[in-house]
Amino acid sequence: MRVINELLLRRALEQLTQVYEGIAMICENTLAGEFDIKLLSATRQREIEKRFPDLLRRLKRSSRHRVTQLLIKAMWEAQQDNLVFRVKGLAALLDRLVDEEAAMDIVKYCALRSR
Predict the structure, then answer these.
(1) So which domain of life are we looking at (predicted)?
(2) DSSP secondary structure of 31-80
(3) Buried-most residue among 32, 46, 74, 92 (CB within 10 A)?
């Protein structure tokens, strides 16, 4: 995997932290933190869209469903264990992802959103 710029990772981490609550709201409605947009009730979707307008739209149109799912699952598990993500932890997660480009897309997207 190509070297990931630490600043880019920090920005991604900041963005992921900002949507953390929205991800937790999604995961409350899913089994073991697995994300499936169809499992969200219409009311819950509206609530999340109102508070986190970009989050659901990004997840719905993502062709990188597995990467998104892994990130959400990891964040859900972190919430369950009351852990805090660090840059090294995020880098380790991205290293485990099969699709390097998808991982980089998410990091870049998060970095752009945090500017």
Answers:
(1) Bacteria
(2) GGG---GGGS-HHHHHHHHHHSHHHHHHHHH-S-HHHHHHHHHHHHHHHH
(3) 74
pLDDT in tens, 52-111: 666 666 655 554 555 556 566 655 555 554 444 444 455 555 555 445 555 555 555 555
Other C-beta atoms within 10 Å of 29: how many?
14
CA distance 39 to 102: 24
Residue 49 pLDDT class (50, 70, 90 cuts): confident
Residue labelled with tokens 């509206």: 46
| DSSP 8-state secondary structure symbol assigned to residue 28 | H
Q: Give CA–CA dist 13/29, Å, rounded.
A: 24
Gap between the Cα atoms of 76 and 72, Å rounded? 6
Which bin fits 48, alpha (ψ -120 to 50), beta or left (φ > 0)? alpha
88, containing H or E segment: helix 87-96
